[in-house]
């Protein structure tokens, strides 16, 4: 079972069995240890996954952090667990603060089993940041999250690489949150700015109340129309030749809307590696192929969507590996693999 599949199992478990994880110990057994196992750590090896880790140099006898993870013989990750009913706050980082400064740890995870917060020392060396660089809800794995989590896997663990991602994630996640806040509750300054050329009178409270809901609605519509426009453009670029209507054994093959959307997702993932005009879709009876240069010898992805359980086929050379997907968004979780394949064709 792949890392993606193991994380999906945990996501379903937290959705359906969270009421049975009310104690911290139950949470550790059902979620935290399987989470570490999914990232390839040997949870049964006390020299790799150390429970109830205590560092004498901390100066507070008897105080322990729930788990310490060793990578190549050094403490690299600290984990503090709280009951699932706990609303995580920086006050819960107290033990992680102290242990981070006296060990070789570079990352600290605070979790209640559902919410995971990843911290490091981007602001000041060897001092744990208050603000996490990555926060996610395990029951709602979205976008490229599993790709980021795989960087913490034992076989891929690289401190410098993760720190580069952490710096980007910290600021992009904060910016996205602010944009979402502006969209939901446009501040007065923003409303003034976008309506400055529309209204010449005094900007009174009544005027603000009149324009604010309009600005909110217009913001949403602009985002929606932009997405639709890009999808339409991507579809238009794929209409030569009629790759959605192949003929096999004199039976017409109908390309589904889901296959078209999946094709566009793949195209978006690799657009900075391979020019969009080089990406083609060729539908077959059993699967829909995404090809480079419309060449069967250059498969990028296969969409096995003509069945109740859907898969995408990922390629490493000529070898295909099928990965189960429940939604189109899950294709993004395999973005790194898809981009690696695209790189093999980029120079051609």
Could you characterize what this model shows?
- It is a single chain.
- With 348 residues, this protein is of the alpha+beta class.
- The chain folds into three domains: 3-173, tt1808, chain A (Alpha-Beta Complex); 185-236, no CATH class; 247-345, Outer Surface Protein A, domain 3, CATH 3.90.930.
- It is 39% helix and 19% strand.
- It contains nine helices and 13 strands.
- The chain has helices spanning 3-17, 24-38, 94-102, 145-150, 159-184, 188-195, 205-237, 257-270, 335-345, and strands at residues 49-53, 65-71, 74-81, 107-111, 115-119, 134-137, 247-248, 251-252, 279-283, 288-292, 299-304, 311-316, 319-324.
- The strands form three sheets. Strands 1-2-3-4-5-6 form a six-stranded mixed sheet. A five-stranded antiparallel sheet has the order 9-10-11-12-13.
- A hairpin with a 6-residue loop joins β10 and β11 (299-304).
- α1 (3-17) packs antiparallel against α2 and α6 packs across α7 (205-237).
- The two termini are 34 Å apart.
Structural key phrases:
tt1808, chain A; single chain; 3 domains; 348 residues; alpha+beta; 9 helices; 13 strands; 5-stranded antiparallel sheet; Outer Surface Protein A, domain 3; 6-stranded mixed sheet; 39% helix
Average the pLDDT over all residues and give the rounded result.
Answer: 84
Number of strands: 13
Count of discrete domains: 3
Shape: globular
Low-confidence segments, given as residue ranges, are: 238-250
Strand content: 15-25%
Q: Mind telling me the C-alpha Rg?
A: 24 Å
Discrete helix count: 9
Instruction: Give the CATH class of the largest domain.
Output: Alpha Beta
Order of helices and strands: HHEEEHEEEHHHHEEHEEEEEH
